[in-house]
Structure formats: structure tokens, C-alpha cells
Amino acid sequence: METDKQRLSTKIKIGFGICDLGGNLFFTILGFYLLFFLTDIVKLAAGLAGTALMIGKIWDAVTDPAVGYLSDRTSSAMGRRRPYILAGSVLLFFFMILMFYNPHISGQRNLFIWTAVVFCLLNTAYTLVNIPYGALTPELTADFNERTVLNGYRMSFAVVGTLIGAGLVLPVVGLFKNPDLGWTFMGGVMGGVMTATALVTFFTVKRLDKAKPVVQKNILRSYIEVLGLKPFLLALLPWTLHITGITVIQGALLYYFRYIYKAENYFQFALLALLLSSLIFIPLWVRVSRKIGKKLSYNIGMLIFSSTVIAFFFFGQSCGVNFAIGIMFIGGIGFSTQYVMPWAIIPDIVEYDAIKNSTRREGVFYGLWTFVSKFGQAFALALNGWVLSLFGYLPDVEQGRLSILGIKLLCGPIPALFFIAGVIILSFYPINRAFYNRMMSEGLIGIIYEKGDPVQNLYRA
Q1: Burial status of residue 223 (CB atoms within 10 A of its CB: 0-12, 13-18, 19 or more)
Q2: Confidence band for 29, pLDDT divided at 50, 70 and 90
Q3: Average pLDDT, the chain
Q4: Using one digit for the tens of pLDDT, what is the confidence trace for 213-250?
Q5: Closest CA to 32 of 190, 249, 250
Q6: What is the pLDDT of residues 49-60, one digit of tens each?
Q7: Which residue has the higher pLDDT, 136 or 84?
Q8: Chain-centre distance of CA 76, in angstroms?
Q9: Mean pLDDT computed over 326-333
Q10: Residue 168 and residue 217: Cα distance in Å, rounded?
Q11: For the chain, which residues make up each domain, given as ranges?
Q12: In angstroms, rounded to a whole number, what is the distance separating the alpha carbons of residues 105 and 116?
């Protein structure tokens, strides 16, 4: 039962949630525009651009669990998580400017090195904010439904951040006749928004980031133990597969509008249709999840999104840009679950581990959560570049039938396969409301660890 102590004020929910406005602004800009910026503005070959982004994401994945582990063990006057959020927010601003600066370096090898190094630095700054921020969730409330509400606020702001990235990037770039200056200015403006939103959260949770540092086993052993938790793996793998598919679509969609529709200006309207639909349906899915559960809500949503992706592949080119806008609005109905359900699921797994192993290690969970998913993103970014190169893509020229097919595959069957695989795996995830409530009220003592599989024994008890 939810108590007044567990219930958070609206001020706290808003102050916490707003950080993900900047977080998803970051995700949107890099996902939808960075590959295009590198191939068509910086003039880095598509295959090299995809590989450079893959290197940056692998580095990003490596730093995630390290920052999570360190934040778990940090003891400071500012708390465990807030020092990292403060440092990362400032660095984000500077590296966003540098990332969208065209260095005009001669030679593909040197340009490749520049891109990979700067992207690594930018991702490190983002990690310093995002991992400690995510680890705050289970520390703010232990209530099963209140966490869903808290993440509903968070992901509503995430959609707003995505809307800003989708709708304002190209108009801001277009303020300048010189595209190089326009892209750099855009990086500074959007980096400033990311910094500001992170600082709001930094100050809002000042009195709540009071958890004691965790005395943990060595970092490798902690990760092995966490990866050995069946519920965690059954949530982690679907999340990673969904992120991979989404990243593939993000990186390819602007190419579709520019070279297939020849209507680059309509790209932002299509994104706005997707994201406005997502924003509208987030509160509905929060309510639906209270009735049918987080897992089923998530799976239904991603199946809806998968079906629209397939429809776009078969009918998008022939039916035109208005069809694309309409199908993306429908897709947003399902896509909205990706904003809420994963982040409402993982705190429940943190509690499962805390009861089972008598230790709290939120940072390890959130570090691994993003660590594995970013390998999926790394693969997706590289896959986009490799597919474009394989199918003969060249920037700023009329695309042939083969390169058109490559772009269409990246916006259809390829990501749909990742989505469907994720839905299948998540179907076996065991923690529902009844499981969670009994676990929290009675613990796991004697009920689920006397013998056999803990999940199965809890259901039998």
C-alpha cells in the first residue's frame, strides 16, 4: 500500500523528471542528425562515420558501469549522485559545441580519428550525468506504482526533449547561411539546454540524495552477480534489442526524407507526429500498466510500433510523405511505452536484488543497463554506415535503386527484427505486481530460497 512517506511531491517529480528532457535531447540529436552531419557536412565516408560512432559508443558503454560503481561508493557533502551530475552537466555544454564543429581536416584517416575522439569525450560527459541520475529512481521511492508515476513524469519530459530535438535542430541550423556555423551554434544552444535541465535536478534532489555509500565487493564480482539475476537479464536483453532497432531507424530516417521523398523539410513534421503521439499516450499507458502490468503494456506497445515500421517499408515510398506522417503518429502510440516501461521495471529488479543479496547497488544496475544497451547502439550506428556503404550511398547526389533499397531496409525490416525479438524475450520476465508486493511485505526469507528456482517458488508459495 502507498504511504504518504512513499508518495513524492509534484515539485520533486517535476524537478527529477526534467533532467531527462536534456537526456533525450542528447539522444535525439545524436541519433537522428549526427551520422548525417558527419557524412553530408563534414564529408566523412559513411562506413568510417559509422565505425567512428561505434567506437564512441563502445567507449560510452565501458564508462557506464565504472561511473555507476563509483557513484555507489561515493561519500560527499553533496551526496552519492549529485557530484557527478554537476560535473557532467558542465562538460556536456562544451563537448556538444565541439562535436558539431566542422574541423575541415584533410584526409579521411585524420578526420576519422578526430570524430572518434570527440565522440568519446562527449559520451563521457553524458555518462557522468545519466548514470547517477538513473540510479536516483529507487532511492526516491520504494512504492511499486509510485515509481511508474515518477517515471511517467520523467519520460514526459523525455518526449519534450525529443520534440525539441526533432523540431528545432534544422530550423536553428538554418538561421545561418554558412551551414558549418549553423551546426556549431545548434550544438551550443542544445548543449546549454542539457546543462540547464541537469542543474535543475541537481538542486531539486539536494535533500534526497542522502543514501549511504555502499561497501561492495570488487567491481567485476558485482557485475557478474547482477548479470546472474534471471529477471535482470530478461529485462535487459529486450531493452537492448529495442534500443538497437530504434537507433537504426533514427540514423536512417533523415536520409529517407532527403533522398527518397526529396522533402527534407518534412522530416521534422514527421518526427513531431511520432513524438506528440508518444507524449499524448504516455499517461494512458501508465494507467493501462496498473491494470495489465508493465511487461504486457511494454510488449503490446512495441508490437504496435513494429507493425507501423513494416507498413512504412512496404507503402512509404509509394504513398508519399503524408502517409509517412500519419503512420508515424500511429507508431507513436506504441513507441510511448519505450519511454516509460523499461525505467519503471528496473527499480523493481533493484529491490529484488537488495532483498536477495542484502545490499543496495543501484549504480551497478543502471551502469550495466546502459552498458549493454550502448553496445546495441554502437552496433546500430555502425550497421547504418556499413549498410549505406554496401548499397552504394554517396552524399549530395541522386541515389540509385540499390542505395534507395538500403535506406528503406534501415527504416523497415532490419529494426522490426530487433523489436520482435525483444518482445519474445520479455514475455518470460517474471516480476509482476503480486510478486513485487509479496516480496516487499514478506521478503524472500524461507519463501523462495529454501530450494529450487526463486521465481518459481515464489509463485508456488
Answers
A1: buried
A2: very high
A3: 86
A4: 555 556 678 778 888 899 999 999 999 999 999 999 98
A5: 250
A6: 999 999 999 998
A7: 84
A8: 28
A9: 96
A10: 46
A11: 10-450
A12: 14
Closest CA to 198 of 78, 396, 22: 22
The answer to whether residues 91 and 155 touch, using CB atoms and an 8 Å cutoff, is no
Distance CA 177, CA 183 (A): 11
SS (H, E, C) the chain: CCCCCCCCCHHHHHHHHCHHHHHHHHHHHHHHHHHHHHHHHCCCCHHHHHHHHHHHHHHHHHHHHHHHHHHHHCCCCCCCCHHHHHHHHHHHHHHHHHHCCCCCCCCHHHHHHHHHHHHHHHHHHHHHHHHHHHHCHHHHCCCHHHHHHHHHHHHHHHHHHHHHHHHHHHHHHCCCCCHHHHHHHHHHHHHHHHHHHHHHHHHHCCCCCCCCCCCCCCHHHHHHHHHCCHHHHHHHHHHHHHHHHHHHHHHHHHHHHHHHCCCHHHHHHHHHHHHHHHHHHHHHHHHHHHHHCHHHHHHHHHHHHHHHHHHHHHHHHHHCHHHHHHHHHHHHHHHHHHHHHHHHHHHHHHHHHHHHHCCCCHHHHHHHHHHHHHHHHHHHHHHHHHHHHHCCCCCCCCCCHHHHHHHHHHCCHHHHHHHHHHHHHHCCCCCCHHHHHHHHHHCCCCCCCCCCCHHHHHHHC
201's grid cell: 535536478
Which of 129, 128, 100, 141 lies closest to 12 in space, CA to CA?
Answer: 141
Instruction: Name residues whose C-beta falls within 8 Å of residue 150's C-beta, 6 or more positions apart in sequence.
Output: 8, 13, 16, 17, 137, 140, 141
Q: What is the pTM of this model?
A: 0.78
Cβ neighbourhood burial of 65 (10 Å; 0-12, 13-18, 19+) = buried
Please identify which residue in the block is written with the cell numbers 564480482. 221
Q: Which fold has domain 10-450?
A: Growth Hormone; Chain: A; (1.20.1250)
CB-based contacts of 372: which residues, under 8 Å, 6+ apart? 61, 236, 240
Q: Please provide residue 359's backbone torsions phi and psi, each rounded to the nearest 5 degrees.
A: -155, 150
Instruction: Summarize pLDDT for 177-190 with one digit per residue, the tens.
Output: 999 999 999 999 99
146-180 burial code (b ≥16 CB/10 A, e <16): bbbbbbbbbbbbbbbbbbbbbbbbbebbeeeeeeb
Phi/psi of residue 261, each to 5°?
Answer: -80, -20
Per-residue cell: 116: 572518434
Q: What single-letter amino acid sits at 330? A: I
Amino acid at 221: R
